[in-house]
UniProtKB/TrEMBL annotation:
SUPFAM superfamilies: SGNH hydrolase (SSF52266)
Gene: LOC18596294
GO molecular function: hydrolase activity, acting on ester bonds
Domain of life: Eukaryota
The keyword Signal is assigned to this record: yes
Family membership noted in the UniProt record: Belongs to the 'GDSL' lipolytic enzyme family.
Protein name: GDSL esterase/lipase 1
Signal peptide (residue range): 1-23
Assigned keywords, A-Z: Signal
């Protein structure tokens, strides 16, 4: 018994020593994961700001974590699966209290955030502020690891970004008049301009490998279908058309960055294709319901009332979220997040290209 206790203590001592060493000097082939974006990627940053845009209450988190974490899902979100595939721990929210080492990476995403500061202003951490937070992390890691090791870490890291959906949805959900004064192309140009400026700033700090999603058919989310007169089941085409303009501009911008920025590599997942396939053929992907959200109220459960904490207290909750493409009015379920993450990780060029994320982590 004494020898067993000695072995356990010795093992724990060695493990703690390795942790201390690792916190000062990452392994040679270590690849960190830094994440910026909106609710599709937010692991709970909004828990720590003054906003109603939170998911830190039941039933969020019910199927995997068994408690609410701040993720807008019944379980995990896309970055959680990507971290798992890359043999990394769950990447924590930047604002989560604690002594973060940041060597695995950190997540800056915020529910409701847009590339434009005006999108849900005052309720979210916009893209510009997320970039500022990333720059703070570069300074902290520079001091902790030394400039040379920090530079290596940032050059090998993968930067996962998803932004734009809220920029195109908020004009409809907040009665903004911005789209009346600009063409679709002009508005998308502003969104893409802020996104590419962010990529360029990360590139200046050493970033070379980027993973991005284009936008899905925004008008087919339950929250947007509510805007269709008569609740006919049709998608709200005006929002979907904006997403198409955005997607074309994003593809062009990424191709230009690849030409202008030496060593720039990217994996762009066609979220429009993968979402549309599941909306049109849910049974093929293991879903029984793609029109109605699992949690919410009103037509298609498209009123954002899941959990009863956002003004509307009454809501409906399905028995099995894995049967639903959408968990709430605008966010997909744990099961759907896993499917998209798998496509981003190993997807073929027609769905995720020119690289997939697995290739980026190995590059």
């Amino acid at each position: 018994m004494a020898s067993l206790r000695f072995f356990v203590c010795f093992f724990l001592l060695c493990a703690s020593s390795l942790t201390l060493v690792y916190s000062r000097s990452p392994p040679k082939n270590h690849v960190a994961l830094f994440i910026l974006g909106d609710s599709l990627f937010d692991p709970g940053n909004n828990n720590y700001i003054n906003t109603i845009a939170r998911a830190n209450y039941w039933p969020y988190g019910e199927t995997f974590f068994k408690y609410p974490t701040g993720r807008f899902s019944d379980g995990r979100i896309i970055p959680d699966f990507i971290a798992e595939y890359a043999n990394l721990p769950l990447i924590p929210p930047y604002l989560q209290p604690g002594n973060h080492q940041f060597i695995y990476g950190v997540n800056f995403a915020s529910d409701g955030a847009g590339a434009l500061a005006e999108s849900n202003q005052g309720l979210v951490i916009d893209l510009k502020t997320q970039l500022s937070n990333f720059k703070n992390v570069t300074k902290l890691l520079g001091k902790k690891l030394g400039d040379a090791q920090a530079k290596t870490l940032f050059s090998k890291a993968v930067y996962l970004i998803n932004i734009g959906g809220n920029d195109y949805m908020s004009p409809f959900t907040t009665n903004s008049s911005v789209l009346q004064s600009l063409s679709k192309e002009e508005y998308a140009g502003m969104v893409i301009g802020n996104l590419t400026d962010t990529i360029k700033e990360i590139y200046k700090k050493g970033g070379r490998k980027f993973g991005l999603l284009n936008l899905g058919p925004l008008g087919c989310a339950p929250i947007m279908k509510v805007f269709v007169p008569g609740n006919t089941g049709s998608c709200f085409e005006e929002a979907t058309e904006l997403a198409k303009v955005h997607n074309a501009a994003l593809s062009k911008a990424l191709q230009e960055l690849k030409i202008k920025l030496e060593g720039f590599k990217y994996a762009k997942h066609d979220f429009n294709i993968s979402s549309s396939e599941r909306l049109n053929n849910p049974e093929k992907y293991g879903f029984k319901e793609a029109e109605i959200a699992c949690c919410g109220s009103g037509p298609y459960r498209g009123i954002f009332s899941c959990g009863g904490k956002r003004g509307v207290t009454d809501y409906e909750l399905c028995a099995d979220p894995s049967e639903y493409l959408f968990f709430d009015a605008s966010h997909i379920s744990d099961k759907a997040n896993k499917q998209i993450a798998e496509l981003m990780w190993r997807g073929t060029p027609n769905i995720t290209g020119p690289y997939n994320l697995e290739a980026l982590f190995e590059a």
